[in-house]
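Structure tokens please, single chain.
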Amino acid sequence: MSLEIGRKRSRLIQVICEEWLKAQEYPGTLDSEVVYDRLVSEGEHFADGEMDSLLTDLRDKEQIIRGPVLYFDREERAKHGAMTITGIADWLC
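Here you go.
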């Protein structure tokens, strides 16, 4: 993993943890679009498919649990992963 990807992964986890706490009040899940929008608003940039790849890696390593993929067109999915996060590992945050 390159240093840049590692940095983005760390920021992604940080924002997931912060937004996860807010999301527990309502609706109890966290959409990847919320995470993406926050990261971009804070100056982060992702190539097409990059955030989807990072989220998929977190899912594969059982650091996040995702629900069904949200309905978005291919462009939106490539942008932010189109995932609903339904749980996170207790030790992640």
